[in-house]
Amino acid sequence: MAENRASRYAEGVPCWVDVQLPDVEAGKRFYGDLFGWSFEDSYALKEGERVAALLPKTDGRMPTVWTVYFATPDVEALARRVLEAGGNIVAAPLETRSGEAVTALVTDPEGAVFGLWQPLAHPGFGRRHEIGTFAWAQLYARDTETANDFYGPLFHAALFGPDAKPDFGRAPVADVFFPEMPPHFVVHFRVADCARAVERVTGLGGRVQAPPFETSYGTVAVVTDNQGASFALLQRPD
């Protein structure tokens, strides 16, 4: 099976993303125009396959954010390991309303939030690494050694195993953002032309947090949508 159409994901591989928005319909118009997504209920589709979810924000006190989920065959066991490694649980393991997965929200020792995803009927991305789909998750940490000490053992096979093809990197917060910004994950979506995609974001009412810059994995720009959710655009090298 092609790498970008995997039916299941090994533990520690980013396998799903969602965003909680105050206005889901406005979000559909923004992302549909930007990435060519169509929609089926809360699911964003590319070529008819699920690539993300746009969910209604139910608590105004919570941030408007994209969340990346890492695959696991046992969400409760992985949540315990997160605690043992110095992280915290934000939302305990719970089956989704659709019954398609068991999920949890946790943090690393520095407070960066990420999700855990145990598939039931929904294994995760139907497509990834293509234009308009998930391509990378970057953790911006205060201390990358602390991050390495936490995520290395937690997701060792996905990061360092013989078949590892990581979709996940770490960098200091101050490399891109103000040093005072809390540690956090930034979800990256692949685009054909980063500069043009940035122009499209601003044309749709979004804004630029970090204009295009070069990384080891491609040209990246960090932007927000028209409701304030941050994400990144990634143009891979030819």
From TrEMBL:
Q: Which PROSITE patterns does this chain map to?
A: VOC (PS51819)
Q: Where is the VOC domain?
A: 13-119
Signal sequence extent: none
- What CDD domains does the database record attribute to this sequence? SgaA_N_like
Protein name stated in the entry: VOC family protein
Q: Where is the organism placed in the taxonomic lineage, from the top? A: Bacteria, Bacillati, Actinomycetota, Actinomycetes, Kitasatosporales
